[in-house]
Structures are given as structure tokens and as C-alpha cells.
TrEMBL record:
GO terms for molecular function: ferrous iron transmembrane transporter activity. Keywords: Membrane, Transmembrane, Transmembrane helix. It holds the Pfam family FTR1. The keyword Membrane applies. Belongs to the oxidase-dependent Fe transporter (OFeT) (TC 9.A.10.1) family. This is Iron transporter. The keyword Transmembrane helix applies. It is a multi-pass membrane protein. It is found in: Membrane. The chain crosses the membrane at residues 38-58, 70-90, 111-129, 149-167, 179-198, 243-261. Its main location: membrane. One of its GO terms (cellular component) is high-affinity iron permease complex.
């Protein structure tokens, strides 16, 4: 539940911040008449995200065993790609996000009401679709989808409350530190999803080595114990992983963490010749 809560909180807060910027811009610009268009775009984006998640679940349930494993493996790999791109994009663009959104909304206001709806829809739909794909990929690793569903729902609700508090200036948090720490945790979650995707490919017969275990710690980490379930649910640590699973997990986690923790280079603005003179 914690990992799915983290997914809902991180993705939900990004979408909430986007909506807060759009709403604040319209309110300060005395264009409250366009707020219904923003909420309409947000509503359509949320409905599309829920429908996308339902489509993934329905499709997986209709497939045969081998095809289902292959479908879940592809969804897991896509989720890892999207969440990795999202983490690094947010790390790079967080500071300029507000100004960029305001500029796009200004252009949309000049075009018309439909453009405002599309603008709000596109701003939220990306986060919603990523959440649905990431949640689906993660939920395949658990025996019941109820706990992840509760977790992601609580995460989204928390994100909405935090976003509302920020908008109302009731609370202030360091968003740079927030996205850094949640990014680190999501990288670990993504590594676990990749490991599970490799396992699905082995189950489908696409990759070999399903029975070639890297280690066996079943005695120290029983899968039916509370701590075994906790580690499996949060970090996808299983007592009998294959060599290929462990190799894929380490090959993703180590370099991704190094790149994420590497200090960003500050952009330098060239000095004009007249100023230098």
C-alpha cells in the first residue's frame, strides 16, 4: 500500500500543482469566467485516466496465461520508461513549470474557450495516464488489488489536500526536496517493477532462466510472513529471484540513482560584448 500511496501522491501532486497554477493565473488575471473550462478539461482527463486503467485491467483479464504474462511484462516495461522520464523531467523543469504553464494558458485564452479546455486536459492527462499505467504494472505484483487501490486513492487525496493548501498559502513545503526524495523512492519502486516485468517475460517463455535462482532466502524471508509481504510489496524483494531478475534490477537501479543524484549543471548566460567592454 505504501508504494502505491507514493505513486498516487507523487503523480497526484504534480497534476494538482499544474491545476493550481492554471486556476491562480485565471483568478489573478480576473478571468474567473474561464474556470469552468479548466475544470471541464481536468474532468475529462481524470475520466480518460480511469478508463485507461480499466481498459488495461479488462484486457489482461481476457488473455490466456502466456499472453497475459507478456501483456503485463510490456505494461511493466512501459511504466518503467514513463516513470523514469517523468522523474528526470520534473527534476529539470520544476522551477520553470509555473511560467511555462502561464504562457501556454495565455495563448489558449487568446484562441478561445475550447483551447482552455484542451490546455487543462493535456496538462492533467499526462499525469493521469502515467498513474494508471504505473499503478497497473505495480498491482500485478500483489495477490489483491484492493490494498494498492486504497493506497493510490489515499495518495491522490493527500496530493489534492496539499495542493489546495499550497494554493491557499496555508502550508508551504520545499517542492525541490519533495520531488527529490519521492523521485529516489520511485526509482526504487521502478526497479522493482522492472524486475517483475523480467519475471513475466520469463513466465511467458520470452526470456530464459526462470528456475536459475540468484539466491534462496526463503528460510529467512518467508513469503507468507508480514515482513516478507512488506518487502515484496514495497521494494519487490522476493526470496527466490532469478539471476536475470537481479541483474535487471541492479542494471537499472545503480546507474539511474547515480544520474539522478548527480548535481545539475547551472546554465550560464553569455555576457554581451557591450557589457563586457
Amino acid at each position: 500500500m505504501f508504494a502505491s500511496y507514493l505513486i498516487g501522491l507523487r503523480e497526484g501532486l504534480e497534476a494538482t500543482l499544474v491545476v493550481s497554477v492554471l486556476v491562480a493565473f485565471l483568478v489573478k488575471s480576473d478571468r474567473k469566467d474561464k474556470l469552468p473550462q479548466v475544470w471541464a478539461g481536468v474532468g475529462v482527463a481524470v475520466a480518460l485516466s480511469i478508463g485507461f486503467g480499466a481498459l488495461l485491467t479488462f484486457t489482461a483479464a481476457r488473455l490466456e496465461y502466456t499472453s497475459q504474462e507478456l501483456f503485463e511484462a510490456i505494461a511493466s516495461l512501459l511504466a518503467v520508461v514513463f516513470v523514469t522520464w517523468m522523474i528526470f523531467w520534473m527534476r529539470r523543469a520544476a522551477r520553470a513549470l509555473s511560467g511555462e504553464l502561464r504562457g501556454k494558458l495565455s495563448e489558449a485564452l487568446e484562441v478561445g474557450s475550447f483551447a482552455v479546455v484542451v490546455m487543462a486536459f493535456l496538462a492533467v492527462a499526462r499525469e493521469g495516464l502515467e498513474t494508471a499505467l504505473l499503478f497497473f504494472a505495480y498491482a500485478q505484483n500483489v495477490t489483491t488489488t484492493m490494498d494498492p487501490l486504497i493506497g493510490v486513492t489515499l495518495g491522490v487525496v493527500t496530493a489534492v489536500l496539499v495542493g489546495w493548501g499550497i494554493y491557499r498559502s496555508a502550508i508551504r513545503i520545499n517542492l525541490t526536496k519533495f520531488f527529490t526524495w519521492t523521485g529516489l523512492l520511485l526509482i526504487v519502486v521502478a526497479a522493482g517493477i522492472l524486475k517483475y516485468g523480467v519475471h513475466d517475460l520469463q513466465e511467458a517463455g520470452v526470456l530464459p532462466g526462470l528456475s536459475t535462482y540468484a539466491f534462496d532466502i526463503s528460510a529467512a524471508l518467508p513469503p507468507d510472513s508480514w515482513y516478507g509481504a512488506l518487502l515484496a510489496g514495497m521494494l519487490n524483494i522476493t526470496p527466490q529471484p532469478s539471476v536475470l531478475e537481479v541483474a535487471a534490477w541492479a542494471a537499472y537501479l545503480i546507474p539511474t540513482l547515480i544520474l539522478f543524484l548527480r548535481p545539475q549543471r547551472a546554465k550560464t548566460t553569455p555576457t554581451p560584448a557591450s557589457s563586457a567592454a
